[in-house]
Every structure is written in structure tokens, then in C-alpha cells.
Amino acid sequence: MSHIIAPSLLASDFLHMADQIELINQSQADWLHVDVMDGVFVPNISFGQVLMPFIKKGCTKPLDVHLMIEQPERYVEEFVALGADIVTVHYEATRHLHRTIQQIKQAGAKAGVALNPHTSIQNIEDILEDIDLILIMSVNPGFGGQKFIYQTLPKVRKLKAMLEERNLNPHIEIDGGVGLANAESLLQAGADALVAGSSVFKSEDPVKTIESLKSIEKNKSY
Ligand code: DX5
Ligand code: ZN
Question: With DSSP H G I counted as helix, E B as strand and the rest as coil, what are the percentages for the chain, rounded to 5?
């Protein structure tokens, strides 16, 4: 299966959100990435439940909801009810991660776990079997448009090896500073889902940029 491209709504023009979502519908994007920030877990506040029904109504692609909020267990069921297809919570934000994952799955969505740049993949070793997606943050969460942290590459390789050793196949999603310049190396390292905010929405032709990101082949020989 080819890799997944998930444009991040955070980088879109909110004044024209309907058009921006329609652009995603018309593109080769696989998912729409929805960044929810609470101003506590991360320094920024983005949007929350109030916007979800509108996004759901407009978007024909699965919603990949990234909760950057403290104690996400308080809200996961609500986000699933509002149309989230994947709910990703941060390892650093929930005390009983296993329980939170079960809550998401019982509510009927796929469950993801996000790791901040400083969080080692060893922390989730014992629950790998339970998760559908691992989101590796390649910037410190909170803002779009930041510079990609290069240590992400060895981290992804290590995670891929760990999963292969156990014959597990959850998505490995990378989020932050991803674009045409580093997408290929991330796919080579083992990622199969790329979040792209600024590199898509701030480009001249977002649909074309998505197409270019989608058509990157890993293991291409030159
Ligand atoms: C950052 C968010 C990202 C962000 C990515 O905290 O989780 O999803 O929108 O934006 P870019 O691609 O611009 O780094
Ligand atoms: Zn995100």
C-alpha cells in the first residue's frame, strides 16, 4: 500500500475553511489531520469540539484527530462521536495510557499514541500490540511551520525495527516540518503516514503539492 498523506488543517486559511476542506476532498490526500490544542499541554490554543461537526460535514476523507491536550481521556469519546476516525493522544498527557487507548477503541475509532521529540519509543514498548498508529513528533508540538528535528530519522528507524521484530504493523506517522525536502527519507526510514501543514497549505498549489508528496517512491534508485 502506498503511503498516507494527511494535510494539517491548522495551516489552512480559516476564513475560507469550507474551500480549504473542499480542496482536500478534491486532492489525493488520504486523511485530514486535525490539531486540537488546549493551551496547557502545549503553549497554543487552536480549536476543539465546536468546530468538529463543521469539519465532518465538509470533509469526505477520514479525520485524523491529534489531541494535544492534558488528560485527553476526558474527551476521547466526544471526539469519536463528533466524527473522528483516528484519535491520537500524547503519551506525556495521560496517566493511564492503556485505558485511554481502550476508551478510543471501544468508542469505535482507531487509536494512536503520539510521542514528543524527547520521549523514547521504549515507553510504549509494552502496549504496541494495542495501538493502530504511532505518531512521532518531529517538532515540539504547539505550532505549525517549525523546523524539522533531524533526530527523528534514527528514531523512526528504531521504531520500525522494533515493530518488525514483533511482526506488528501499526501506522508510523510523522508530524512537524514535513515537506518535499524530507518526505522521501522519512518513508525510507519506515514512516508510512506523513502530516503536512505549511508545506501543503502555504504552497502555491496545495493540490499539486499533495500529489507530489503522494507520488514519492521509497527505494527509488537514481
Ligand atoms: C504541531 C502540529 C502539527 C502541525 C504541523 O504541533 O501537531 O500537525 O500542524 O505543521 P507543519 O507541517 O507546518 O510543521
Ligand atoms: Zn498534529
Answer: 40, 20, 40
Q: 204 Cβ partners below 8 Å, 6+ apart?
A: none
Q: Is the pTM of this model over 0.85?
A: yes
8 lines ligand 1 (CB under 6 A): yes
DSSP lists the bridge partners of residue 87 as 65, 111
Residue at 158: amino acid letter: K
State if residue 62 touches ligand 1 by the CB under 6 angstroms criterion. Answer: no
The number of the ligand 1 atom at minimal distance from the alpha carbon of 141 is 6
Residue whose C-alpha cell reads 508545506 in the numeric block? 199
pLDDT tens string 93-133 = 999 999 999 999 999 999 999 999 999 999 999 999 999 99
